[in-house]
Amino acid sequence: MIASCSIISCNFSPLPPKVNSSFPRSSFSPPKSLVFSSAESNPSPRFSKILPFLINRKKGHLQTCRSSFNTQTPQDPPLVSEENELLANGGNGGGDGGGEERDWTTSFLLFAFWAGLMYYVFFLAPDQTPVTDVYFLKKLLNLKGDDGFEMNPVLVAEWYIMGLWPLLYSMLLLPTARSSKSKIPVWPFVTMSFFGGAYALIPYFVLWKPPAPPVEESELRRWPLNFLESKLTAAITMAAGVAITVYAFSAGGDLWKEFYQYFKGSKFIHIMTIDFGLLSTFAPFWVYNDMTARKWDGKGSWLLPLSLIPFLGPALYLLLRPSLSAAPIALAPTSDEP
């Protein structure tokens, strides 16, 4: 516990009265049984196991009694450094134990939010035009021929941008949002997001346990990472997002008012618009997570405020971020490497 010092146990009875000795004062030395030299300063394994318990459980009952014979040299470490370290770690003998525990408060609140959201979607969302919803869905899927009805351009733009959101989230979550402390993969949730949007992604957000596992160099050259990490994919996604946004805002104010009326009465449009808002809300967090995993949170921090812009902000980050092979992150060696 204490290195390079003379220790006299405090459990002995009081010392006898001082008597005159014929020996010079400088030649006197304490009994060897009460003095531990620097070579014997390390406690035995058996004592080291109970030492943290004594420090943690009975503070104030463990005393350090120093001998009046100062045998510590200037080269010796501080006498109480190891004791302070044990006290700081709560008697665990190390600082890694606390990191294994997880605060489930955020996950619980996120799950409660998702459960309430799903209840709203199925039971409380407006559903005044079910027949119109089916008609709109067929028109958007090109299952309905040209009957002279012109679809609202804001609705069309939202429909197509919702088809790009899952691709954008795939590029953000794979591989930097995988869970190293959980066996739950991210790809099933990403796949379901092409049909369910944020409603399918939030359960993974609840179960997510960072940090992400190391990425093998060979994995970056295989599907799907070679596609998701491609700058060409990011550029096409960005260009498509810009085109759809321009198309939506080119619509007049009357068409936006018409879209708002659809939102208040159509369950299909109402749920899809909420989905768009949720994906836009969660995106800045995953941009920051991916940026941190690539060790780019210093140079790329200026992109964080821009990620608040729905779709276009995260798409710009994906276009400018460094590739995993170039980023200074821990890459696992491939199987053919020693």
UniProtKB/TrEMBL annotation:
Q: Which GO terms describe its cellular component?
A: plasma membrane
Q: Which domain of life is it from?
A: Eukaryota
Give the UniProt keywords, A-Z.
Membrane, Transmembrane, Transmembrane helix
Q: Which chain regions cross the lipid bilayer?
A: 108-125, 154-174, 186-206, 232-256, 268-288, 300-320
Which PANTHER family does the UniProt entry name for this protein? PTHR36009, TRANSMEMBRANE PROTEIN (PTHR36009:SF3)
This chain belongs to the protein called: Cardiolipin synthase N-terminal domain-containing protein
The taxonomic lineage of its organism, from the top, reads: Eukaryota, Viridiplantae, Streptophyta, Embryophyta, Tracheophyta
